[in-house]
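Subject: mismatched residue count in predicted assembly?

I count 1140 residues in my input, but I want to confirm that the predicted structure covers every chain. Input:
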Amino acid sequence: MSTTSHAAPANYLTGGGWDLKSWLLTRDHKRIGILYILSITVFFFIGALFALLVRLELLTPAGDMVQPDSYNRFFTMHGIVMIFFFLIPSIPATLGNFLVPIMIGAKDLAFPRINLASWYLYNIAGVITLWAILAGGVDTGWTFYTPFSTSYSESYVALVLVGIFINGFSSIFTGLNFIVTIHRMRAPGLTWFRLPLFIWSHYATSLIIVLGTPVVAITLLLVVVERVFRLGIFDPALGGDPVLYQHLFWFYSHPAVYIMILPAMGVISELVAAFSRKRIFGYHFVAFASIAIAVLGFLVWGHHMFVAGQSVYAGMVFSVLSMLVAIPSAIKVFNWTATLYGGSISRETPMLYALGFLGLFTIGGLTGVMIATMGIDVHLHDTYFIVAHFHYIMVGGAIMGYLGGLHYWWPKITGRMYPAFWSRVSAILVFVGFNLTFFPQFILGYLGMPRRYWAYPPEFQVLNVLSTAGATILGIGYLLPFTYLFWSLKYGQRVGDNPWGATGLEWQTSSPPPTENFLTPPVVTTEPYDYRDLHVPPESRSPLSREEEEYA
Amino acid sequence: MPDAAHAHGHAHGHPALQHQFDTLEQQKESSTFGMWVFLVTEIMFFGGLFTIYMIYRMASYEGFAEASHELDIVLGSINTAVLIGSSLTMAMAVWAAQTGRARTTANFLVATIVLGSVFLGIKVVEYAEKFHHDHVPGWGFAWEGPHADAAELFYSLYFAMTGLHAVHMIIGIGVLAALIRPALRGRYDASYYNPVEITGLYWHFVDIVWIFLFPLLYLIGRHVT
Amino acid sequence: MWPDFPLFPDAASSLARDIDLLFFAWLAVSLFFTVLIAVVIVVFFIHFRRRYQGQIGDTREPRTLPLEVTWSVIPLIIALTLFTWGAIVFFDIRTPPADAVEYWVTGKQWMWKVQHPSGVREINTLHVPVGQTVKLTMTSEDVIHDFYIPAFRVKQDVLPGRYTSLWFQPTRVGTYHLFCAEYCGAEHSLMGGSIVVLTPEDYERWLATGTAGPSMQASGAELFGQLACDTCHRVEGAWAPDAGMPARAPALEGLFGQQVALASGRTVVADENYIRESILNPQAKIVAGWQPIMPTFKGQITEEQLNALVAYVREMGGSGAAAAGPEVGEPPRAEQSRRGESGVAVDGEAAAPEATEPEVTNR
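Triage response: the counts match. Full output below for your records.
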C-alpha cells in the first residue's frame, strides 16, 4: 500500500496550521506526542542537572561542595523528576502516543480530548513540582518513607506529592486510552497475534498503569493528609504503621519499574526485527512475556523490604516470585538474540542502541535477580549496588530504548534524517559513558557504600571518581542527539515513507503522516515482521543505507 | 486533503460521531469500555483505602468497634436508602434517554441530582456533629473511651473514606447537571445515548462504594452490644 | 591490591563467608550469561551483517518451542536453586543462636546509642569481643534507621515503635565501618561510626575503663518499682499493704514468650513488641479476665527506659519458670510464689538512666 506523500504535502504538521493555538488545543495524537516530547525533554535536563550536582559532590569523600541538606534535595529531586516526569511518560506518552494508533491502523486514540487533558495534567503537575523545587525542594528521597516524610522533613513534601498525585492521573489517562484503543480500534484484519510487539508491550504497560497508579495515588494522598492534618495512618508516634506505607508504596512502585521498561522492550522488539529484516523469533513468547511481566510484577513488591521488618516467610514468597518474574525477561532477551540469527543485520544507529540495550539489560536483569535472593540482599540492600542495578534497568534499559526508538521513528515523525556519523558517535558515547558511570557502583555497593550518602570513607574515592568521569561522557552522549536532532528539523535530509525498509503500518503511510494517519484505511492481511515481499524503492532509502550499499 | 480525510471520517454522518471512530456503534462500545476501565482504576483507588482500613481494623478491633458506635446509625441508614433511590432514578434516566423521552430524561436526571444533594446534606450534618464532639483527628481530637488511639485512627479513616466518596458524589452531580441541557434538546435517542449511560455506570459505582462503606464504618460489632 | 582502593570488602563475621559464597555463585551465573549473550550478539552482528541493499533475513519459520522451553527451564532451575540457597542463608542471618549475648541499640537522628550487657554505654561505636555471638535488639526514637556493618554482611532496619534484631559473630580483630543504611534526614551519611572487635582480654580491659552502669534488666527492675508497676502487676497477696486483696493486673512472672488470651478472644505471643505496646498503649490488647484500668506511659518514659522495662519483663519470663506456671491470662492463683523481683529497689533518688548520655568513647 504505497501512498502519495509527495503529491499530497499536507501532513499532521502542516495540515492544521502552525499557530500556537492549533498546537495547544490539538486533539491529534501525533501532535500531543510531540508536545510530550518537548515537555519530557525539559524535565530530563532538569533531572540530569541534579544528577550532575550529585556526582560532583561525590568526587571527594568529604562533603565539601554543598551542605548535606542541599545534597539530600539534589538526589531526591533527581529521583522524582527522572522517575515521575521523565521515565514513566517517556516512551508511552511520546512514541506510544504517536505510534499506537498508526500501528493499529486507527485515525486517532479513542479519547483524543482525554489525551490532551493528560498532557495538560502532566504540565500542571510539572509546574507544581518545579515550584516546590524553586521554593526549596524536597529532602525525603523519591520513596517518601514515613515517618520521615510525614513528621520530620521540613521541606516541601506536600506540594511535591500533590504534583505527583496529579501526574498519576495523567498516566492513568494515557493508559486508559491505550487499552480502549487497542481493544476497539484495530484495522480490519489486525487480529491480536498480528499486532506489533510494540503494541503488546504498551498494552501490558497500560494494564499496570491502570491497576497500580491509583494505589500509589491514594497512598501519597494519605501522606499529604497525615502531614498536613496530623492524622495517624503511617507515623507510629500517631498510632500508624510505617511498614504499611512501604507495602502500599512498593505495590505500585515496583510495577512502575515495569511501566518504565516494558515500553522499551516493545521498542527493542521493533528495532531488532526491522534491522535484521526478519520476523521476531518466538513472537508469541515475546508477546505473552509482556503480559506475564505485567501480572507477576504486581506480586513481588515485598522484595524491597527484606530487611524492613517483614516476616521471613513473607520474604520467601516475595523472593521466589521475583525469581519467576525474571523468567519472562530472560525469554525476551534470548528471543531477541535468536532473531539476529540468519538476519540481514544493519549497523544503523537505532540498531546500535538496540544491541546496547541487550547487553545492559542483561546485566541489569541478572543483578536484579541477584538482589532478589534474600541472603545476598541483606548485605546489598540500600547500597550502591542497588543504585547501579536500577540504573542499568532504567538508563541502560529504558533510556536506551527511548533513544533507539526516537532515532528509528524520527524520520517518520519529522520526515527528515539526522546525520549518520554523529548519531553513531552518540550511541557509542552513551554506551561507554553509561558503563563507566555505573559499573564502579556495583563494586562500591558490595564494598558497602550506602546510597544517599553525602560523605563517604576515603577508600571509596577512586571508584566514585570513575563514576563521575563516566557521567560526564554520558552527559555529552545525551547532549549530542539533542543537538543534531534539532539541527535535522531544518537541515536534515528529507526521507521517503520507508527509509529503513521496515514492515509495519507506520511505514506504509507518508513521512510525516497525514492528520488522520492514512489516506485510505489500511487492511491487514499478514502477520507482523513479514519481510518476504519487502521492496524498498531507491528514493526512500536512508542516506545510511545508500552508504552501506556502496560499502558492500 | 484534510477535507477529504474528514469527509471519510464522517461518512456515516451522525452529528455525534467523533472523527476517530468509524461507526456510532464503535464509539459507544469504546466509551462504555473506557468507563469500565476507569472504574477499575477507581476500585484500585478505594481499594488502597479499604486495605488500610482492614489491616488496622484487624489490629485494633475493639477500638474500631468502640469508635464506630459513636456514628449515627440512623442518619447512615437514611443516607443508604437515599443513595439506593438515586441509583433507581439514574437507571430510569438511562432508560428514558434510550427511548428518546427528552423531558423524562431531564426529570430523572434532576431527581438524581436532588437525591445526591440530600445525601451530601445529611453528610454535612454528620460531619458538623463530629466537629461539635471533637471527633475530628487533627482538630483537637478528644475521646472518652479506653481506646483513644484506635478511635483516632478510625476517624482518620472515616473522614478519608467518606470524604473521598463525597468528592466523587460532587463530581457525579456536576456531570449529571451538564447532561440536562442536551437531554432537554433531545440529543439522546436509541442511536446515541452513551453520555447518559456511562454517567450512570459511574453513579452506580459511587453508590456501590457506599454500600461497602456503610457496614464497614457504621456497623462494626453491632451484634456485640 | 593497594590499601586505598579495595575491590572487595573485609569479611569479619561468621556469616560473611556463606554470603560471599552465595554471591560468587550468582556472579558466576551472571558472568556466564552476560558473556554468552555478548559473544553471540557480536558474532551474529558480524556474520549476518547486511551485504547488499534490499537484503532480507532468513524467511524460514524455525521451530521455536524446543528452544523456548530450554531457555525458560534452565534459568528457572538456576534461579530456584539459588533462591533456596539464599533462603537458607537468610534464615541463618535472621535466627540468632541461643548463646547470643544481647546488646541494646537505639537509633535517633543522627546517632547510635548502644548499651552493653554489663551496663556500659557508648555512642556511634560498638566494642565487641572476637568470637562472641552478639545479638542486637534495636529500636528508633524518631524515623527509620538501618544498622549496617558491611564487613559482617549484616543489616537491619531499625523502626520507631517496635523492636527488630540482628546478630553476628565477629571472627577477626579490627575496626570496621558502621553505617546507617536507611535514609533518615540531613546527616544520614554521618550517622555511623565503627565496630571495634577486640580480643576478649582487651574487651575486658576496655570495659573496665568505662563507667559501668546497671544492666538493662537491673535498671528495668528499678523502674518497675519507681513507676509503681508492681502495685498492680504482682502475685496476689504478695504485697504487704493490701495483702489479701485481689490483684488488679496479671503477674508478669513467666509471661514472656507465652501465648496470651485476650479479652477480644484472640491470642498473641508475649514478645518484646507486645510488652512494648502494652506499656505505651495498655488498652490495645487487654488480657482476658482483667479490667482495662492501666494508664498509658506514652510520653512519660524515654525510649531507653522503655527498653529497660521490656528487658526486665522479659527476664521475669525466665525460660524454665513459665512451664510450671498457670496459663497466662487467667488471674493468678494464690499458691504461685513470688519470684524474680530480687532486683527491685524502690529508691527515690535513683537517677533515670536517660538523664545522662553515656560517654564511653575510650579506645
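Chain A touches chain B through 48 residues (CB under 8 Å). Marking this ticket as 'not a bug'.
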